[in-house]
Every structure is written in structure tokens, then in C-alpha cells.
Amino acid sequence: MERIKQDIVSGKLKPGEKMPSSRDYSYELGINFNTVARVYKELENEKILFTKRGLGTFITESKEQIEDLRYAMAKNLIATFVEGMEQLGYSKKDMIKFIEIQYNNIERIE
After folding, report:
1. Domain annotation covers residue 110
2. Are 36 and 22 in contact (CB under 8 A)?
3. How many helices (H) and strands (E) in the chain?
4. What percent of the chain has pLDDT over 70?
5. How many angstroms separate the CA atoms of 105 and 10, rounded?
6. Are residues 57 and 68 in the same domain?
7. Does residue 57 sit in helix, strand or coil?
8. What is the pTM of this model?
9. For residue 62, what is the enclosing H or E element?
10. Residue 77's domain spans which residues?
């Protein structure tokens, strides 16, 4: 599920794009068909995917919905980072320093 979300917020999968069938996607990913069907259903409940009967499953066309998803994913990443750093005994100031150092050391494709 996270992979699909990541592909949507990164733009790899476009708003309104048709998703592969559950069967095709399960084959592509090498996982059980029922797992993909369950993930599609969960993403429909989250309004990230929608199904048009007889046509297939599609990614939401709502840019607001996609931006909300992106924000929620970022918030979860930060919460996990902060929790882990606090468990290691780091202060907020230390965390910010780590982020700045890491950010400056990553090569970016522009």
C-alpha cells in the first residue's frame, strides 16, 4: 500500500491514471492477488483510488486529496524520526543539526 501511495505523491502514478488489474499487479509485484485486492479496497476507502464499474480502478483526480496524502506521509516520517531520535537521547537542536548535515550530503537530481 505504501508503495502505491509513494508512487502517487511522487508523480510516478498520475491523477486519473488507470491502475493495473488486481491480478496483473499481483503478478507484477510477486504477491498474492487477495493482498492487492485488499490494498485497492483500503485505498478506495481512503479516497485515493476509485473504481468505475466495468472500466477498472483509477487514481483520484483530486490534487487536494493527493496533497493531503503527501502531507500525512511526511508527518508520519517526521514522527518516526523524532521518536527514534528521542529514544537515542537526542535533543531537538541535535535533530535539526542531523537533518541539515544529511540534507547537505545527499546528491540530488535536478
Report:
1. no
2. yes
3. 5, 2
4. 96
5. 21
6. no
7. strand
8. 0.77
9. none
10. 64-105
